[in-house]
Amino acid sequence: MDAFFASVEQRDNPDLRGKPVAVGGGRRGVVAAASYEARRFGVRSAMPSMRASRLCPDLIFVKPRFDVYRAVSQQIREIFAAYTPLIEPLSLDEAYLDLTDYLEGRTATRIAQEIRARIREATGLTASAGVSYNKFLAKLASDQRKPDGLFVIPPEAGAEFVHSLPIARFHGVGPATAARMEAHGILTGADLARQSLEFLSARFGKSGTYYWNIARGIDTREVKPDRIRKSIGAENTFFDDLRDLAAAIDELAPLADKVWRHASNAGRGGRTVTLKVKYGDFRQITRARSLPRTVSGRDELFEIARELLAPVFADPHGVRLLGITLSALGEAGADEAPRQLGLFDQA
Fold first, then answer.
1. CATH, residue 94
2. How does DSSP classify residue 170?
3. Which of 6, 120, 143, 144 is deepest in the core (most CB within 10 A)?
4. Which residues define the annotated binding site?
């Protein structure tokens, strides 16, 4: 979807149309999504709202309405399901679809056109699509003609297309990895393709094989409809930096409530609790504790987070943000720790 959260807000409030809009924000918050009018000023998601305001003095901040976004996302998901059961959601506004066995005499390009038209008719919103023979290239193609665009990369053009792109454009290559590659003279896909598998593996470990393949337009990952959620988390940025431990512990309580509620609704339990702390100077740390069993309930989740917080709280800059994440997920109530067999037990 194109600038999904911001586009929903502009759709529902005509006064926002054609204006720079940021979802989220507040004096100490961050931008969750930015309209294309805001992006022209350099405003991007995950940007601190104060910086966004400096870049675009006329920026309009609106509070997020996640219930609305989820409802629209479900409408879109139902459209996808009319074409294939093989849908791998990446977020509320993005998914991979495998159409290989569901073309029914049509081309994938034609189906992409139909899906985009049906999304516009059902929601009043625009979507961009990428069509190709693997996930890596389809993702690159989906960004090629945003907003409201369609781009196709056929098999015979895959490697050539990859070679022409800056390495920073590659999905799965973050800023830190791009900087490391650039230090080795790898600036484009063509530069990456010139490196041997041994060279890439020695410098990038297990990811070296992935980089070697994508430089040649190769990606064998399947579209997985039952994509497993790896963690459930919640965080909050505070209007004023916290400098009192008792007050910070009080702020952990609603975060624990939210995480446990989402875990319960999903029927999931987890063994690892991670605390995220961002200080007033924007330094960020995490602390985690793993149990040999699933966390028993909201109170234990809160207590572990509280114990993780106490040793790291004292800082002259105060605490700007706190977050709690539950991971190593499994079915709620299931003891995931394997029982060690005794000397006389039989497997």
1. 3.30.70.270
2. S
3. 6
4. 93
